[in-house]
Amino acid sequence: MLLYILKRLVTVTPVAFGVSVVCFLLVHLAPGDPLSAVLPADATQQTIDEMRSAYGFDKPLPVQYAIWLWHVLHGDLGVSIATGRPVAQEVGRAVVNSLILASVATLIGFTFGTFFGFVAGYKRNSLLDRAASALSVFGVSVPHYWLGMVLVIVFSATLGWLPPTGAGPDGSGNWRPDIEHLRYIILPTVTMAVIPMGIIARTVRALVADILGQDFVEALRAKGMSEFGVFKHVVRNAAPTALAIMGLQLGYLLGGSILIETVFAWPGTGFLLNAAIFQRDLPLLQGSILVLAMFFVALNLIVDVMQTALDPRIERA
Amino acid sequence: MPVVFKTIGAPAVLTGAILLAATSASLAQGVLRIGMTASDIPLTTGQTDNGGEGMRFMGYTVYDGLINWDLTSAELASDLVPGLAESWTVDPADKTKWTFKLRPGVKFHDGSDFTADAVVWNLDKLLKSDAPQYDPRQSAQGKTRIPSVASYKAIDPMTVEIVTKAPDATLPYQIAWIMMSSPAQWEKLGKSWDEFAKHPSGTGPWKLTLFAPRERAEMVPNPAYWDKKRIPKLDKLVLVPLPEANARVAALRSGQVDWIEAPAPDAVASLKGAGFTIVTNAYPHNWTWHLSRVEGSPWNDIRVRKAVNLAIDRDGLKELLGGLAIPAKGFMPPNHQWFGHPTFDVKYDPEAAKKLLAEAGYSKAKPLKLKVAISASGSGQMQPLPMNEFVQQNLADVGVEVDYQVVEWNTLINIWRAGAKADISRGVSAINYSYFIQDPFTGFIRHLQCNLAPPNGTNWGYYCDPEMDKLFDQVRNTFDKDAQTKVLQKVHEKYVDDALFVMITHDVNPRAMSPKVKGFVQAQNWFQDFSTITIATAGR
């Protein structure tokens, strides 16, 4: 097991390096000058040149990359051009906020997704299956920013029950899971949860249907095992795949919620990325993309390890 | 018995009445929460970022300039008024030498005195790169605003002398950009601008009490503000960055904020229907086509310039924008003090346009073809795509073929800086650009002065007319305010009569607010005063 983890860690290193190159180059491919959004529009060429050399944008790209990577390896993601605040601090705060959002959304999505998946898988072709499937298809296909806006129109603008934007009555600074703060989290997490819910429900349904059709289930039943005992075997067999999917979904939710965080003005990584893109804030953009990409890499690793723990066949392969 | 009752009752009733009065008075002030379009709290250290919005919310609130803008009237175009300087004069013998007499008794929020040394310290903060308090971020914002300043010094504790590179009567407009931060506070916070950003100290009517990056800023009134009329009536002002237009509308409709900047035009009708107030006013903004005057440009023919100006149905365009626009009659909004009396009437007259085009030698067989760079969005650009499509249709009606090069907003800014001759301009003969035109320099001079052609400035089209330059020199050398206004009118008359731009429309700076918001006067300015506002208890 330990050896397997070590092996996986070794393979992760080149991936991480590749990710860092892509992160660095990608933002340089985007059109526009990194300083144009920060300087007043009629700044003189002299001011622009001064800023350019102050931020090191006048150096060749490989040199810029080497300097950047050196700092990153020392835990320094640089300083945001737009705000002057350390990128690590900005991203750190945003990641915590996104983590809150993503974990609650994953919890909702995973709970409902597995529930619907099992129900549909066990009661194939019944009315219950149809309803659960319809719900999961809806979850997968509805554009979530649209759903977010509809929820805001209904529950905030019309009924006035829930706040439409922000992370709390006085921002995210003193976030704690009390009623006042939880009211702010309901709409964005529900909106966010529909996609993982749909995906997990569909996957689990297919898995359960497949497992129930296998010989060993029949053998267990023939052996006289209780239906609950059989169910436990089904869960055990379905868990590795379901977990892998949940891990990926958590990754998506952590980084892929730009639209939702923008619609709800939730101060997480998506909101930060959006601001960084519009302001051409290269250090902030590079830093936050890198952190998010590394999250993916790390999550994949964790999921792999967990899968191996749950299903020894993977290690042998 | 009744007597006893009376003696106890009277004070009780009186106390009750006082209590009641006190409660209703404090409730009448309240908290105003504003949804901004910026995605972050503008820079809090003094010289803000985020353009006009930054100065509006974080500049003239927490800070003052030596000279401020008069933001008291909705009817008149706003003008400069004394701020931290009580008066300023130019030396009659040497027109480059200005003396600013400072306002006595002004204190920064931290309690330290505002003096001439503080002014010099603040100018060093922006201009002197080896000064300990030099701040590259504020310098990047402020340096460009005071191009004329050559040197400065404190004459005595209440007098500052500023020397310009050449005589320049527009200096007061430049100085109005420069915000004064507290040197004592910076010293106290370990000479760190990062710390100062969290605990800023200016002389303005508002004190910043909470700064949560990207989420929220809170301000309370400065009861010791030097201008008693501008001591805020509210208890608190809260700023929330809400860059997404729909999120702003949702926040307003659900009562999370009381005021939003720039509601999306298609949300205006429904907001009005729901009882919200839409406040608009003219302000020094225009939405134009800036024309290339390089060799071979079709715009070098005045008949073409006039024809295109006459071909645009500005009232139709206003309708397209739900009424949120002022049709252009010139480069400045109508009624502006610099408008003057141009003879060329900017109006919709397609027949006259066709005639002029025919005179210029264009016909069905040989139509006028224009290549114009536009952006898909951008600060101040209003709704560039549908608006330009509308203009394109108008021009097609008189036989002009327009080909748009749609570029991203930052690219358009780069094109604008690089000039019409640069490769990046891709051979376009005009760019659709909206302008901040609040002072003589940003309003007129920078666009058309010969020596401001790129790379020295933003005369994008390489326009050069010695007559216009002579007028600009007059503006810079006319130190009497009224006489200067007359010269500026002449400049504007030439702008319009020579049809130097395609003058299309002016924005009206719409903001939507809850009916609870009382006492707001929307000045004809990019900046606004929040001191007069109160929040009523009744209503949404």
Question: Which structural traits does this protein have?
Answer:
heterodimer; A: 317 residues; mainly alpha; MetI-like fold; 0% strand; B: 540 residues; alpha+beta; seven-stranded mixed sheet; six-stranded mixed sheet; 17 helices; 20% strand; globular; disordered N terminus; ABC-type transport system substrate-binding protein (chain B); SBP_5_dom (chain B); Peptide/Ni-bd (chain B); SBP_5 (chain B)
Structure description:
The complex is a heterodimer of chains A (317) and B (540). Chain A is mainly α. Helices cover 75% and strands 0% of the residues of chain A. Chain A has one domain (88-310): Orthogonal Bundle (MetI-like fold). The model of chain A has no long low-confidence stretch (mean pLDDT 83). Chain B has 540 residues and is an alpha+beta fold. Chain B is 33% helix and 20% strand. Chain B has a 7-stranded mixed β-sheet with strand order 8-9-10-1-11-19-12. A 6-stranded mixed β-sheet of chain B has the order 14-18-13-17-15-16. In chain B, helix 13 (384-397) links the parallel strand 15 (368-375) and strand 16 (400-407). Chain B is globular, with a radius of gyration of 26 Å. The two termini of chain B are 48 Å apart. At the A-B interface, helix 2, helix 6 and helix 11 of A face helix 4, helix 7, helix 8 and helix 14 of B.
Radius of gyration of chain B: 26 Å
Average residue-wise pLDDT of chain A: 83
Assess the beta-strand content of chain A as a share of residues: under 5%
Number of strands of chain A: 0
H and E order of chain A: HHHHHHHHHHHHH
Proportion of residues in helical segments of chain B: 25-40%
Q: Provide the gyration radius of chain A in Å.
A: 23 Å
Helix content of chain A: over 70%
Q: Number of helical runs of chain B?
A: 17
Q: Give the biggest beta sheet of chain A.
A: none
What is the strand content of chain B?
15-25%
Uncertain stretches of chain B: 1-28
Distance between the ends of chain A: 13 Å
- Whole-number tally of structural domains of chain A: 1
Q: Can you tell me the CATH topology of chain A?
A: MetI-like fold
**Overall spatial form of chain B:** globular
Multimeric organization: heterodimer
SS field, number of helical segments of chain A: 13
Mean pLDDT of chain B: 90
Family (chain B): Belongs to the bacterial solute-binding protein 5 family.
Protein name (chain B): ABC-type transport system substrate-binding protein
Subcellular location (chain B): Periplasm
Organism (chain B): Methylobacterium persicinum
